[in-house]
Design a protein that fits this description.
The structure is a single chain. By secondary structure, this protein is an all-beta fold. It has a single domain, classed as Beta-galactosidase, Chain A, domain 5, CATH 2.70.98. The chain is built from no helices and 22 strands. The protein has strands at 2-7, 10-15, 20-25, 47-48, 59-62, 65-68, 81-85, 89-95, 108-117, 120-129, 135-137, 139-141, 144-146, 159-174, 179-196, 207-209, 216-221, 226-231, 237-241, 249-256, 275-277, 282-292. The radius of gyration is 19 Å and the shape is globular. It starts with a strand and ends with a strand.
Length: 294
């Protein structure tokens, strides 16, 4: 079921399947979210939980048991319930069930709230540990943005611009062994804040920065100054991805966690940037999407 929100003639649409953002349009009807065309990628903005990326051979050890774990976890294929809704705000929730226990044994609850205020969309994800033991997880977002946004533009007209100067040294993904290579990096800037987009940048899959000093990154055309800003203050890492073949979109992915590294074992709690919650505790993660010049 699709839930629609509106504010000042801006509109968003979210699917109860995965609580996934499917559309964000401005007053002119311009679309900013990738349309999930399976010719390139059948997602638009999945929530990543309780894992990010892949685990080795599709399995990970949780509470002493080897468990099959889908790439990016199970939220994207789970039906969320609507627990509150107004004209410009909606909250979705998902709790553990017989379907999740074989994959992820913890008793949990996820609440994902979308709040639209004009050209700004705020996403708030709250994770609750309903279990009697410490709960471990990764959490991340995967919004895909149309790129280019305007007719007559090209993907290569756009840049990524961080709010601060960064040592932009990305960890390289080893496509042959399906893992990040802890000792292999690609330098994009010794000290800078922009990356000019080109399809070949993604020949090795995602561009992944394990840590940035910035909390905001912008996808924009410097000639017009228009684009999209993503505020990922509550996330340690950020990745960027588009599939090969000239896909007209770019994903900006804030992560707390990552796919498997070559130097990690298969025990879930040993994964990088693992999050933990004591029994009865909760944690909140905020993500903001703002349209620039629209």
């Amino acid at each position: 079921m699709i839930i629609k929100l509106s504010s000042e003639n801006y509109q968003v649409a979210i699917d109860t399947l995965g609580a996934e953002l499917k559309s964000f349009t401005d007053p002119s009807g311009r679309e900013f979210i990738w349309n999930a065309d399976p010719a390139y990628w059948n997602g638009s903005s999945p929530l990543l939980f309780p894992t990010i990326g892949n685990v080795r051979n599709g399995r990970t050890i949780i509470e002493g048991i080897s468990r099959e774990m889908p790439q990016h976890g199970f939220c994207k294929s789970s039906q969320f319930s609507v627990s509150g809704q107004s004209e410009n705000e909606v909250t979705f929730s998902l709790t553990d069930s017989d379907a999740t226990h074989p994959i992820y044994p913890y008793a949990f609850k996820l609440c994902l709230t979308y709040r639209l205020c004009g050209n700004h969309l705020q996403m708030t994800c709250q994770v609750f540990n309903r279990d009697s033991r410490t709960m471990y997880y990764h959490i991340g977002a995967h919004p895909g943005f149309m790129c280019p946004l305007e007719e007559g533009e090209a993907f290569t007209d756009y840049i990524l611009e961080f709010e601060k100067d960064e040592h932009l040294n990305a960890t390289v993904y080893d496509l042959k062994n399906c893992c990040f290579s802890s000792g292999t990096h690609r330098l994009y800037a010794e000290k800078g804040r922009t990356i000019s987009l080109a399809p070949e940048l993604f020949n090795d899959d995602a561009i992944f920065f394990e840590h940035t000093d910035s909390n905001v990154v912008r996808l924009l055309n410097p000639a017009s100054g228009k684009g999209v800003a993503v505020d990922y203050t509550d996330f340690v890492s950020v990745a960027f991805w588009t599939p090969l073949g000239g896909a007209p979109f770019l994903c900006v992915e804030p992560w707390n966690g990552s796919a498997i590294y070559d130097d990690e074992d298969d025990i879930f709690t040993h994964k990088r940037n693992i999050q933990s919650l004591e029994p009865g505790a909760d944690a909140v993660y905020e993500l903001g999407i703002s349209l620039i010049g629209y």
